Amino acid sequence: MHIVGSSEPRIIGLEVTDESIVAQLADGRTVSVPLAWSWRLSEATPEQRRNFEIMGSGQGVHWPDVDEDISAIGMLSGTPARRPERVVKPQRRRTVSTAKAASVAA
Predict the structure, then answer these.
(1) 47: three-class secondary structure by DSSP
(2) Which of 5, 14, 23, 86 has most Cβ atoms within 10 angstroms of its Cβ?
(3) What's the predicted TM-score (pTM) here?
(4) How far apart are CA 20 and CA 79, in angstroms?
(5) CA distance 98 to 63
(6) 41-74 pLDDT, tens digit each
């Protein structure tokens, strides 16, 4: 009888190329996802991509320079990171005091 210590996937090694994120899992599998799945890593420099930390016992990976986290489960389930929608803030109207306006007009 063989007892499995954990059924959760664990990342034991990682490589980030110009095109993909490749994780080696503890159970022998290799998982690869397109780099474009992480917009933060897509826009990062190669040096920033190389600076990562495997979290915990391999549940995921963290890139401190770009504040990105990717989990082993997310890679296996095919869940890309979505870019947040840009919120356009309305511009504040600048008001000029009456005294200042009078001095500029003079």
Answers:
(1) helix
(2) 23
(3) 0.72
(4) 14
(5) 52
(6) 999 999 999 999 999 999 999 999 999 999 999 9
